[in-house]
């Protein structure tokens, strides 16, 4: 496939949305919400579009679908189709919408993020500025702070022009007063609200996340999490939501003072997940985890990053697993046992109620 044809398929995979209530007897319609989405599957004439569950959310009742709504999907070429709700999850704010078209549609390439970075400068890979280029689908993409990314969406009025907001992956944390979801990453792109649910891409044009609107930047859900959610739903027809019971981040993002104490005691440890806060009454507290502990093994497997930990927790929901952690006050690694909880209805994340 040459560059021009690949670029065309890449652009065509992104689509705008709008949500409307179904027509009343007087044929009156009111537009409720607008967002963007990405075609991730297309078999024959049936396609799945990944987007935000805010498209479906009732503005008055938390974590419920608005009554009597109709989803209309507008494609890149001006065609419009009714969207059918295939799956949704208000915890991660993702939804899968199915459409029936008259021909197969181009799909986007997804690249799971590898967010592990060794904390020794001599071990860090040397980076150079990269121009935007397209490549065939790959399995993973190494992401480090400062990497160039682009948030994509489509404007919600004809001719549905594509919107592109360049930026960089940021080490900054999300504002948890605004976003409760602990699995979100940050980038410095600035998008309009109709770009919510649209893809975040790397410099190869691969999807690495789903974008959510903030005032001066974006939060994005790594595509790893959206993908594992969708694959699990297709297999079991029900959601899964591992609950961490703690706030964590990658070891490389810890304060220098904390890193110095850890490295002086355990110089061989270069990757892991540091515990920033233990939630009272959660499984992490019962397991004995403490503030500034560093998790280096989970379930007998070395974990190098947050996304690796999330993936392992997903596989072990409801099970008791062994953790190996290092603690600055201990001389040797500690072995703890933790039950991987699942988020109950009272623990689901709250999301902003974005308006049109």
UniProtKB/TrEMBL annotation:
Q: Which Gene3D superfamilies match?
A: 2.30.42.10, Trypsin-like serine proteases
In terms of Pfam families, this protein maps to:
PDZ_2, Trypsin_2
- Residues of the PDZ domain: 242-329
Q: What protein does this entry describe?
A: Protease Do-like 14 isoform X2
PANTHER family, alphabetized: OS09G0436400 PROTEIN (PTHR47389)
Q: Which organism is it from?
A: Nicotiana tabacum
Q: Which InterPro entries match?
A: PDZ (IPR001478), PDZ_sf (IPR036034), Peptidase_S1_PA (IPR009003), Peptidase_S1_PA_chymotrypsin (IPR043504)
